[in-house]
Design goal:
Blueprint (H helix, E strand, L loop, with lengths): L13 H4 L2 H16 L7 H37 L4 H24 L11 E7 L3 H21 L3 E9 L5 E9 L3 H5 L4 E8 L8 E12 L14 E6 L15 E6 L4 E5 L5 H32 L10 E6 L5 E4 L5 E2 L2 H7 L3 H16 L4
Parallel strand pairs: 4-9
Antiparallel strand pairs: 1-3, 1-5, 2-3, 4-5, 6-7, 7-8, 9-10, 10-11
């Protein structure tokens, strides 16, 4: 048996790749912060610091274990020459190390500062009438299935049903590891081509839906909102939701007049709960809007031409005359449409998007 070739370089080289020293320094800083007098006078800030420290400690433990495994593999490689049993053991260990390294490499792609925050994802039916509203509901179901497969918690914040079928819009909160870091890859226009179930002549129709994704911003992050710039309306909830629906004005709509951003929430039972949720979503959307404005300004300085977001179609889902899901940004495509729409198999698309971003950063395109 040919012994697998393995570098005998220092096993600690991964320390620089995964910024081991940087993580260790940051963990020490956080430990000092939590140990100083009065650290817990602000419980919310201290809790956030504690959570970051816990996450870093977990990452450092995992990296140390990976380092030990790499060293063991190097020793095994030196001892396995001519030993078939040890050679098989080495092959198995290298496969495990490769899988773990790929996982760690993917973690490095989450460079957005809000990657670890919960994500607020909204789906809006676009052009295409009833087909577009049905398409919006299909997309929402796809994201919920993706969340189930990743143990990501979801909470429906708002939903507006279509007249005949589907949804006009819906907003869902996703809370899990890298929730925003992953789901932000879905932001943009999604296009569906299929034989319409709403067409008596069974013709092929095209429908569009807009997916908007922004991080949920915690209270300690300052977002300035002038009350004079905000209009708050209350109205009766509609759709499924129990006996309280349509009997009290519990639903809340907040309009930010300077930007035109409108946030609605009707999923909670009380007006107070809906108001609090709507304000939380508005703060997150405004911060995302401000980040987008800064990015647009920087691109204008570079001389880049930015096309309007609604026209920036990112992905096509074709069910007829052939089956294909293709991401127009990365070129990644799959033929198994059912796996994507019904099982929420989005990870290959998300990873391709993140890797493309990383390549652009490396070449200074962003």
């Amino acid at each position: 048996m040919t012994r697998p070739r393995i570098s005998t370089g220092a096993p600690c080289s991964s320390r620089s790749i995964f910024d081991f020293s940087g993580k260790e320094s940051r963990a020490q800083e956080l430990e000092l912060d939590l140990g100083r007098d009065g650290a817990w006078d602000d419980p919310a800030a201290a809790q956030q610091t504690s959570q970051e420290l816990s996450r870093l400690r977990g990452e450092l433990d995992d990296l140390r274990k990976l380092e030990v495994r790499t060293g063991d593999a190097l020793e095994l490689a030196e001892l396995s020459d001519g030993d078939a049993a040890m050679g098989d053991q080495l092959v198995e260990e290298l496969a495990g190390l490769r899988s773990e390294m790929e996982k760690r490499e993917l973690d490095l792609l989450f460079q957005d500062p809000y990657s670890d925050y919960p994500a607020l994802l909204s789906v809006h039916a676009g052009a295409g009438g009833t087909d577009a509203q049905d398409w919006a509901e299909m997309l929402l179901r796809m994201y919920l299935r993706w969340a189930e497969g990743h143990r990501v918690r979801t909470e429906l914040l708002d939903q507006s049903e279509g007249e005949e079928a589907g949804l006009k819009s819906a907003t869902v909160r996703f809370d899990g590891v890298h929730a925003y870091g992953r789901l932000r890859a879905e932001k943009g226009v999604h296009r569906l081509v299929r034989i319409s179930p709403f067409d008596a002549q069974h013709r092929r129709h095209t429908a569009f839906a807009l997916v908007d994704v922004y991080p949920e911003i915690p209270d300690e992050v300052e977002v300035e909102i002038d009350e004079k710039d905000v209009r708050v309306d209350v109205y009766r909830s509609s759709g499924a939701g129990g006996q309280h629906v349509n009997k009290t004005s519990s639903a809340v709509r907040i309009t930010h007049l300077p930007t035109g951003i409108v946030v609605t929430c009707q999923n909670e039972r009380s007006q107070q709960q809906n108001r609090a949720t709507a304000w939380r979503v508005l703060r997150s959307r405004l911060l995302d809007y401000q980040r987008a404005q800064r990015a647009e300004h920087l691109n204008d300085l570079k001389g880049d031409l930015i096309s309007p977001e609604w026209g920036n179609q990112i992905r096509s889902y074709v069910l007829q005359p052939y089956t294909l899901v293709k991401d127009l940004r990365t070129g990644f495509e799959v033929g198994n449409v059912q796996a994507v729409l019904e099982e929420g198999d989005l990870d290959p698309f998300i990873e391709a998007f993140l890797r493309q971003e990383a390549e652009r950063r490396e070449h200074g395109d962003e």
